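Figure S4 source data
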Amino acid sequence: MLRCQCPCAVSLRMLSIPSGVQVLHPPVQLLDQEAAERLLSQDTMTIDEALLARLRRHPFLARRPPKTADRGEFGRDYVERVAGPLLRRRPADALATLTYFSAWTVFDAYRRFVLPRTRIDRVLLSGGGARNPVLVAHLRECLAPIPVCFTED
């Protein structure tokens, strides 16, 4: 049985963003310079349970497949509306929560729609998310005991 436990803190050092690199991700783009500097000065980030609960109530998640979400569904406007206050106060915590939520949505879809119908030997990751070590760690934790591998493996 799959279980997805919410970790209380994630090391920002796992992100290892080289100096001078601009992170272009919708939540980060919503930060002003002061908030971005606070984010980069923190060592850990904590998942905000209240924001996570709001995110999990999004109607898209209740729909059965096949389904697809465009940028309008979970894009900049949505992030600003749902997570904007937390992004401005505690940007690292907002990013931790949004990253965990991304992994949780994969877990939830597998739990509800895939695993009741078929057996999975492994999950293959590719694309930009596969280069996010925090997201990958969350996916591995949520999908255990199913191995999470990269398409290059």
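Figure S5 source data
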Amino acid sequence: MGYTHFDKIAAENGIAIGAAGSETVAIDSDGRIATGADDYDYIITMTSPTLGTSGTFVVAAPGIAGTIEKIYTVLNGAIITGNCGLTFKIGTTGITGGVITILTASSAQGDIDSATPTAANTLAASDYIACTDDGVAGGTSTAQICILIKKT
């Protein structure tokens, strides 16, 4: 399988996860999402509201049945007050291992963080994915979120 680096795909398709970072996201010749040796069948992206505001935001996953295997965030700017906690759920059920803490000390545009869900991470075709922000971060930064899903 030949892989194309995500930055090229992002440029060609208007998809963004970030300008910098050590994680490589790619798409194989069959159109599946891949990071390293892992192949993914779906990728869902969403943009958070301002990270300094507590609340929940959602994204639909219409027709997608699978297992959430990895969740990535990338900051669009620094956070200033405190660490940012993002908790991911399928509907109202928390995803085990689906929490990302973005540290204030190392925050800057392009900072990538991730979570590897271990249980309660199976989507049915009619589900939605929710993310709850603890509102501690402060400032006006947002984050791009990438959710990698393997078809079941």
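Residues 63 and 125 are 4 Å apart (CA to CA). The chain is about 5% helix and 45% strand.
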